[in-house]
Write a structure and sequence with these properties.
Strand content: 5-15%
Order of helices and strands: EHEEHHHHHHH
Largest sheet: 3 strands, mixed
Strand order of the largest sheet: 1-3-2
Shape: globular
Structural class: mainly alpha
Distance between the termini: 38 Å
Length: 173
Amino acid sequence: MLLKEIKAFPSTTDFNSSIFEFSNLYPNLEFSEKFCGCLENRKLMAMSPELYKNTYPEGDEKNGFQKLIEHEIAHRLHIRILHGNEDAMGPIWFYEGFAIIAADQFAELKSNLSKEEMWNIMKNPKRISYIDYSFILRYLLQKKSLQILVDKAGTQGFELWIYDLLFNLKKKL
């Protein structure tokens, strides 16, 4: 069973206290100020639709709240695809991009990031822009299938492989 409970919180205080209680399980976990939901231990915790819009206005798109829920479920599905190996999910930009694509978030937005800008975003170990992650993964999906990207994401040398793919340094496999 993937999910047995859903809680939507109407206030930031209620959401944060629930998340802080949850985060005691993961003392090194860092939450961004735009953190709006998670699915852990088959319990989905999310801000209410109104609070989500106020906290993360970038996500205010058609069916935005539904897409937030789908995004959180996609993270769990990603882990299941990897047989429970969360370390194989790859870097932040990739696993967040995976969930964004699965939830069809930001599909209508366009970006004009250069390859160098994409690479700089990918090298950053902190969460930056989910919209940029969306653009980056959609760009890479024009080069390789999602299955190939998922299979490579947690492997040693993934970053170098992506760099080569991004800048077309090696012949296609």
